[in-house]
Give the backbone structure.
Amino acid sequence: MTVTNRLFLALVVLMTSIFISEWGHAQTPKKIKAPALNSAIQISPLGVDLRFERGEEQAIETQTYLDFSAGYHYLNWSADLEYNQRSKKTGNAASYVDNKHQEVSLWGSYRFFKVRVQQLQFNLLVSGGLGMFSQEITTGYLGAEQTDETGNKLFAGLGLGLEANYYFSQSFGLLFASQGRMYFSNSYDPNPILSVLGRAGILYRF
Amino acid sequence: MKLEIKQLTAWLVSSGLMIMSLGLTACAPQKDLQDTKGTVKVLVPSTSESGHSLKVVNLVGIENIKTLKGKYAEFYYAPNVREKTIAGKPAVTNFTENSSGVLVPADEKTKQLATIYYHLQNLAQLDEELGAYGINQGPRKVGVGVRLRSGGKNNAFYDSKTDSILVVPYDQNNLPVAINPGILAHEHFHSLFYKVVRKNSEKIEQDKTASVSAETKLELTSRKDRQNQSNKAELTEEKINELYQTLILRSLDEGLADYWGWMYTGDPDFIALSIPQHKANRSLKSSDVFSDSGLPMVQTIKEHITMFHTQGVSSKMNDYIVGFSYQVGTSVSRFLKTYTDLYSKERGLDNPQARKEVAKQIVNLLPVFKEYARKENIKEFKFSVLVIELAKLMGPLTSPECEFLAKSASHSQKSGENSFKCEQKKSQLVIAEVNEATDDRDK
């Protein structure tokens, strides 16, 4: 199990335990008013970014990227650090290309519309990000194999999204978010790449 | 109101930051691969005498790296192949640059396109070396991901109507046809053979494509053509000669193309790398070329044609002929390989050099075949012609070479016909035709 997978699993376990613990509190008859967002941190280990990229068969196809993010929220603003990865192997046993893509990016978001319904809060947001990506490409041919690494390349992104936060205590909440995004880089095909991002995580308010 | 001004400021600041970040990315000092032209370093698979490897090669004359169009090839993805045109979107590549500035294919399809370009570039340069310069002109048109009406897979074709190499999808777990260097050389040779031998000669219209395997056909003939075929039920002398013409030309085309694949790769089993089911019947290895795989007699071929007609359905006659031509073609390629190995040993040349020397003479033989390709001359063609004409071109023969060639030529003559033997003429060994009857009397 790789370090990333271990980290992912640990976060899932942590999130589940917090959820169960807080769910217990939520069952008490005490009525909780959804708090106004002031400062908060969020961790979203469960994210999937579906990007519409040119596939091997030349058409625009959906490529699935795993998404992990952690961020700091203040009032209507947030800054999130994201990590995305995708691994794609094409070819057959005799001749193949295994392409591993990784990227790190910093995103800023502004929530321009909010609505609260008891413990639920919905936000509409716009976001912009800047990041770097790299690829590790393993080429195989009749038993011969070679791995090449590319340098880091810049990319930028814009997004428009909807968030749903469910607060089950004064401090903790669940976050569900979806964004439509555009990624820009002169290495992308097409440029920009459109995507639909979905993620789930926890919020800790302080 | 204060809040609204604050929000507006926030909007403006955030929008400015976003535009800046996009601008930074768009104008970032990273190299745009789309500007790459001329000579480009690319990682491709390579097969040589020493084995299979990955190596960095120069692709020359690249005009557009995104579509890999250049001096030696232009690619079409899933093209429409019509009567005389190949049309469709250009194939799009996906390269990434490694830390040494080498372009690395980021997916298998791109690797295949780069490999095809590399081999077509090599084969074009080889044409110059072997005296076939100018037969093919301009970038070679290559269709990849070609979809056949029959759904056929695992094959490659040379289509003379569009002068293009067409590669259909590959679904086996072996070396894809598109990057099999021997198969690419095989298809490349078909273009040389067509342009020198078959073009403008009287030929039946259904015989415009050549492939590496008989199992998948490039179905471009119209329904009307097929109906006409099925109506030709009677096997007249003229029809036998027409089928003989088709068979001989196809056999020479396939046999020499297989030789080209071996000449280029040094692998006598290059077809089996992609299509293992052809290992036994298409291998150029032969322990004894005078066994049943020897150059066939005219009589044997005509008997086969009659037998196919008697046993089969007349509408499938063309399929029988195509299938049989691969068998006869393998006899031709095995004969040439055996001779080349002997030539290499006798002249003290390394095998790749010997293969090129024989290939040069094959190029010189093509105009001879063109003469025989004419309908009125094809009746005169026997495989001994191939042997004798090759012997004339190979220069002074050593005794073992001469003996082998004379035996091969005689083997393809039917009993009662003249045979061949080596004679000393002006201090050189030559192959002379011997009248069987005179020879018997002498004995």
Summary: Confidence is low (pLDDT under 50) at residues 1-15, 17-30 of chain A.
